[in-house]
């Protein structure tokens, strides 16, 4: 067993060097900060725990219970949807389901901490809830042993158990970085289309999106007129600016996601990352075909495009602060080669105080990200920073704090400089 697991650890060598000796590593999203890393290794029952696991030891010592559930379904769409369904079911339970990533398997799931129920009582409660899915789940109970050791005991594996300790060191890169590409950020339309095709049996609306996409030219080119994208956090003034640019340039105004699929946006917003981000990504390719068609006739202004899709996707997936983001020039920051490029991407920047003032003066329904931007400072910082890390084309930052007319004037100057008009 040990040598099999050790072999499975080999691909992790580059990024998880010092942890190779452990059999598995649990990355737990315990709070709004960096993940907490717990190692699980085989150990004889008289081994001493040198690094007692935070969260688990105090909870078990106080009579509570802890279980981890990871989804091992081989198909990515059912796996993502099963995780989301489990999350909803566990959210309705007492206790806290903390998102969990198990390495090296990369299976995702939850650590369920229950302060008020004994391990046996919690197992009685969980069994019927999990029974229909057990074939795709790995469930482990955590037990307190002598000498304050905490053991991971997988359901259905007899007396097998693993010593749980605080990991010796955190991985050098955030554990979600390796799966960003292909799970949250899509490098080409085929990847996003593939995900939505797999969704058809579960989400009928995916067929609607794909049928619209089928009618679009696949590698459209822009015409000879300027194509300007406006990006920025919510309430930075994108709508105000794009409307004015439309009038000043006699341009066509488009937005991402495009109007033709926005009727399904709420449905996909409630789906897990893989599916939701594939929807937004394919939306950009549909917008690209609209840009191509319109830019044969008049300038085109676009309210959000690929930069928003990638920035929000990465910021949502990578927990903690800026230091956890993929390094500059990482492949997730590169513009997809098959996506029509604009001539200029304007990024509207604004202080948080002024942005909140503008949000309040508007008072409309918020998306999950909008609510997150208000409450969660690291999330907001990450989105802002991510806009700046996107490459080829990069964003050109424009201060959005002056009065409307001044912002528009500045952007018109930029357009003149960048678009040779
Ligand atoms: N330069 C400006 N000075 C003062 N207020 C402004 C300025 N630009 C826009 N506003 C006001 O700020 C609010 C938000 O602007 P707007 O709706 O254009 O932002 P947005 O970026 O499109 O937001 P969202 O992305 O959420 O749709 C509006 O009430 C708008 O009138
Ligand atoms: C295009 C796009 C948008 N979002 C999120 C980011 C914001 O919170 C809302 C804003 O949408 P609006 O139409 O500009 O009001 O949607 C996203 O997560 N991914 C995207 O690709």
Automatic annotation (TrEMBL):
Its main location: mitochondrion. PANTHER family: THYMIDYLATE KINASE, UMP-CMP KINASE 2, MITOCHONDRIAL. Its EC number is 2.7.4.14, 2.7.4.9. Residues 230-409 form the Thymidylate kinase-like domain. It catalyses: dCMP + ATP = dCDP + ADP; dTMP + ATP = dTDP + ADP; CMP + ATP = CDP + ADP. Keywords: ATP-binding, Coiled coil, Kinase, Mitochondrion, Nucleotide biosynthesis, Nucleotide-binding, Pyrimidine biosynthesis, Transferase, Transit peptide. This is UMP-CMP kinase 2, mitochondrial. InterPro entries: P-loop_NTPase, Thymidylate_kin-like_dom, Thymidylate_kinase. Pfam families: Thymidylate_kin (PF02223). GO terms for molecular function: ATP binding; dTMP kinase activity; nucleoside diphosphate kinase activity. The lineage of its organism: Eukaryota, Metazoa, Chordata, Craniata, Vertebrata. The gene is CMPK2. It is found in: Mitochondrion. Transmembrane segments: none annotated. Belongs to the thymidylate kinase family. One of its GO terms (biological process) is dTDP biosynthetic process. GO terms for cellular component: mitochondrion. Gene3D superfamilies: P-loop containing nucleotide triphosphate hydrolases.
